[in-house]
Structure formats: C-alpha cells, structure tokens
Design a protein that fits this description.
The complex is a heterodimer.
Chain A (H helix, E strand, L loop, with lengths): L2 H22 L8 E7 L6 H20 L8 E7 L4 H14 L5 E2 L4 H13 L4 E3 L14 E3 L4 H14 L4 E7 L2 H15 L3 E8 L7 H9 L4 E5 L4 H8 L6 E3 L6 H7 L6 E5 L11 H11 L5 H20 L5 H8 L3 E2 L4 E2 L15 E6 L2 E4 L7
Parallel strand pairs in A: 1-2, 1-3, 3-4, 4-5, 6-7, 6-8, 8-9, 9-10
Antiparallel strand pairs in A: 10-13, 11-12, 13-14
Helix pairs in contact in A: 2-11, 3-4, 5-6, 11-12
Chain B lengths: L2 H32 L6 H17 L5 H29 L4 H22 L15 E4 L2 E4 H23 L1 H11 L1 H6 L4 H27 L5 H16 L4 H21 L5 H15 L6 H5 L3
Antiparallel strand pairs in B: 1-2
Helix pairs in contact in B: 1-5, 1-8, 1-9, 1-10, 2-3, 2-8, 2-9, 3-8, 5-6, 5-8, 6-8, 9-10, 10-11
Classes of the chains: A alpha/beta, B mainly alpha.
Chain lengths: ~375, ~300
Amino acid sequence: MSLSSFIARLAGATALVGLSALSVQAQTSGEPVKIGAIVSATGAGAGLGVPERNGLLLAEKDINAKGGIKGRPIKFIVEDDASNPDTALSKANDLIFGQKVQALLGPSLTASTVAVGGVTHANKIPQIAFTGIGPAVERERKCVAHVLPPQRLNATALLEYAKSIKATKVGVLHDAGYGNVVMAELKPLADKYGVKLVAIEKFEIGATDTTTQAAKVKASQPDAVFIIATSATPFRNVKQIQITQPVIAAIGSSSYEYVNAMGPAADNIVIPEFVVGEDPLPHQKDFVELYKKTYNSTPKNYEAAAWDAAHIIAAALNKAGADATGEKLCEAMKAPYTGVLASYNFSADDMTGIPISSFIFSKLVGGKYTRTPFRVAQ
Amino acid sequence: MTLSLILQALFAGVTNGIVYALVGMGLSAIFKGSRVINAMQGEFAVIGAMTTVLLLTRTGWPYAAAIAGGAVAGALVGAFIEVAFVRYMAKKNASEDSFLLLTIGLALTLSASVLFFIGRDGHLLPPLGGAGVLIILDAVIQFHALWLIAIGIGATLALRAFYHRTTIGLSMMAASIDADGAATTGINVSRMRTYTFVLGGLLGALGGILVTPLIGVDYQLGLNLTLKGFAAAVLGGLTNPLGAAVGGLTLGLVESLAIIGISSSYKDVVAFSVLIVIMILMPQGILGRAGRRGG
C-alpha cells in the first residue's frame, strides 16, 4: 500500500467514524415530552429505587441521543416516594394533574404500585410499574403494565431449577414480606413439579439471626434449600450451620448490596434472574457496557427493568405520536417488545407477558456472579 | 425434634441473648445513672462496629487496635451526647419524655449520617478465633460465637464489680439513687452522669463490634438492636444492668426455643406472650428488686 492510498483510507475511516458519531448524537428540539417517574430513592425500598433511577436517567440520555420522540426530547420527571404508598399517591397526583405528564413509570414497591394504579387507571394515564403484578385488583387495570415477573413466575423458576437437579425434597427459608407472597404461589405449584416442601420456615423482615430456622430446615434433610428474602442474613446462617445442599435463591436477594453483605457465604448459590453484568447475553451487552461506562459499576435486574420501561414508552410514543396519551398510547404500548431484562407482552393476562424462557440462572461463586448454561424452554 | 436441633437452638439462643444483653446493659446503665431512656443505644453498636470496620479496611490498623478504636469511639460519642445535649436539658429540668424524644432524634440522625457518609452496604468483621466451628452432636457453633459469649459474660461480671468495688462505680450509683445526697458528700453529680453515658456508649460499641462478624453491620442495624435490648432491659428490671443480662438471655432462649417447639411463624407471638406473662408476674422485672440495692 502506498503512502498516499494509506492516507486516503485513513481519511475515509476518520470521516466514517465522524459520521456515525454524528448520527448517534442526533439533535432533538422543541417542547420536551414529559413522562413522570416515581421510585423509592430513600427508605426500605431504596435498594430497588436507586438502581431504577440510574437506569431511567441513562435511558433518557440514550433515547434523546437517538432522536428522542419524533425529534422532540423526552424528559423523565423523577420523584421519590420514600418507600411510602401515601407519598407515592400524592407525587402521582402532582405529576398527572400538576405537571401534566403523558404517562407514568414506577413505583418501585408493590404497595405503592397498587395505590398509584388507582389514579392512573381512573384517569387513563398509561403506567409501567417496576414491580411484578400484585393483588387481584391489578388484573383489572389494563393500562398498568409491569416490567418485573409476577411472583408466580419467580416461584416457577425456582421449581424448574430444583427439577433440573432432581431435588424432590426442598426446605424453604422465607421472610414475612416478599417471602410470604412468593410462598403463596410456590405451595400450590410444588405438587405439579413433584417437589415436597419438607420444611417451611419463616423469619421477620430485618431479622438479624435466622440460625434456628435454618437448623430446622437442615434437620428435615432436604435435597435443596430455597431462600426467599431481601436480606443477606439467611444466606450467612445457612452456611454457618454447614448446610451443604444446593441453595436456590429468589431474585429479591440478587442485588450486589446483599451479595456483599453475605461475605464468604456468597458461594454456591443459584439465582433465577435476568441480567448478569459480568457475562451478559448478546442482546444485553450494549446496555451493560453503556451502564458501566456511565456509572462505573455493573448493572443488575432493576437498572435494566427501568431502562426497558423507558424504552417501551418511547417506542409507544414514536408509534402513537409525541402528544399521545390515554388509550391511544396504551394500545401502542401493548405491542410485544424485546427488552434487555426480558421479552414483554403487555396484552397478556398478567400485564407482563414475560415468558419463563427469559430467565437466566446465575450462580454465585466466591462472591462473584457467573452465568450457568441452564435455561428453561418455553 | 432431635437432640441436635435442641442444642442448635440453645446455641443460637445464648448467642443472640448475649447480644441483646450487651445492648440492654448499656441501656439500663444509662437509665440507672440519668433516668434517660436511651433510644439510640443500638446506634452506639453501629458507631463502634462501623469505626472498627473503617479503621481496619481504610487505615489498615491491626484488628485489636481497630476494636479498641471502635470501643473508644462509642464511649466518646456517649460523652459528647451527655455534654452537648443531656447536660443542658437537665439544667432546664427537661422531662423524661423530652429526653426520650432527644434520643429518638439522635438515633435517626446517626442512622442517616451513616447512610450518607458510609453508604448502604453491609460490612462484616473477621471472626475472633478464625472461621472455625465447634460441632457437638451435629449442632454447629462458631468459635467467634464462643468468644462473644465469653466476652459478654466477662463484661457482665466486670460491670457488676465496677458498680460494687470501685469508687467511681459507687459514686455513680450514689449519684443516681439520690443526686442531692451525693452532691453533699462531694460527688460531682453531672460528671457521674457523663461517665454513665461513657459506660453506655462503651457497652453498646462492644456489643456492636462483637456481633458484626456474625450478622454484619449496616445503617439500619441500630433500631433493631435497640428494640431487643430494650425488651431485655425491661424484662430484667430497667434499673439493674445485671438484670438486662438475665433478660437478654431469657429473650434469646425463648425466641429460639419457640421456633423449634412450636413454629417459626408464631415465634414472636410465643416469645412476647412469655414476656407479657413474666411482666405480669414480676412487674419489677426478673431482678427488679435487686436493682434498688444497686444491682
């Protein structure tokens, strides 16, 4: 290659890079499209709300860099409900009637979602909640969609893994909040999977010691142990009293906050979840890289759920028109969507449509997440 | 129910009981010396444990020095709270409920400060005596838990000796029983109250440091410990630090035996029913009367 042709190629390549950078940094102009968001940035739910806020703000930048909503910028007005349903409700009222948002994302907690859903449903404001579907009344709210799996699906994922390792006797340690809700779905499903729940032990939320409950699980000689909680305590206790059977944990314990608090106990634990930032699936790679670059930390499920919700509403607005709201936007939102966390179909009965095949099964080894090859076929 | 399960429940009950006892003893030492119900006793535990964690991980102090640093931090915060708030309010004849409100406010402030400056994450400390365990009849107890029990019993005995054998201890007791009488014999009553808070802070910090290798410490731990410690102190007789030790052990054992005896779903129902019965039968607490003699 001669020098001149080399320079010509180099110039061409530079121009190409410049051009692609330009096309990514598309300009948006005009009145911003306002979307409200409520997260639990403080209080008991902050472990969910803070990652969700990060995911939302990253999505806002990403959507606007790619042209926004038909050339107009999208703006997420993020409010904190302090993990309190009353606060969530008043923030929702302000966002809907004061700020005139076209749709609402969040909240982070089930109780807040149920409360806010009363307003959005009555006023036909499309909502995408960062929770799994909760009490029966939510099934009637056909424009309140959910980006996290219903608890029945979480229970199914635990049982699918138990089946795959041929565990027929399972001991359960669960807390009195989240754990109770998943347990209610798990009990009737267990029979179908030929799994006998040989010990079901409960502990209060925030318990600092669950050793005795773990000892009862151990005494029932299970083939595997399910832990359904939002704390690191039961994991440490299970290892402390030397339970050697495989531990399978529900998604609630998957955040790094809990994993770090487990210390050396964060080993040989399988979690059915969606995002392993250390080893993302091909369609998750772009999001994970962008997140790492922006926040200098590795994202997990809740960051991805908020990111997906933001992109779903943006896609629906691009389809139905930048000023769309109400039923028109709601209908547009219901198109099947393949997100980072999972594939959704909000026209499904559970207002989620996440298939069991969206789950990946991660394994904690020495405090680090690895992705196992196990998947469940639809 | 197997023997090994009962033994495991006893291990857990005694370990938790000693933790409740340490928090309860600090609470009751402060109440005895100042008539302040200290709703931030659990925060002393968080301060002690967090300081130890920071000294160990960020400045690389040896573990023993970091533990001493954590305990001193608890004592200093105790002294600060007495000098900065309690002393001033006592001069104005603040009522018991004002003091309670003060300590509730301080508890929330401290917890929020830990969240703001140190973050949400939980931290563990290395176990004393290594990660080894003792196994008896299939029931497992960590070496660290044995250390915790031994140090807890040691602290209880030392506290009793302090109140009975040392001049400062006797003066503190005198100042708490009859402040005017003590003042006429030349005891500096307000300084004794400062010492009381130092003692409370020290005991709370010690409890926090000892429990961290087992349960980890984060900004939310304080309230939990305060509640259990308060139950332990009331059960044993609030004016008697030794009673808090007995109360703590009772509470820990009732809790864990309720789990294996009945069901983990009804653990709190059973545990608190037992406490109610004890309080009806012994309204002064298990060691209540001894409290009047100074514990």
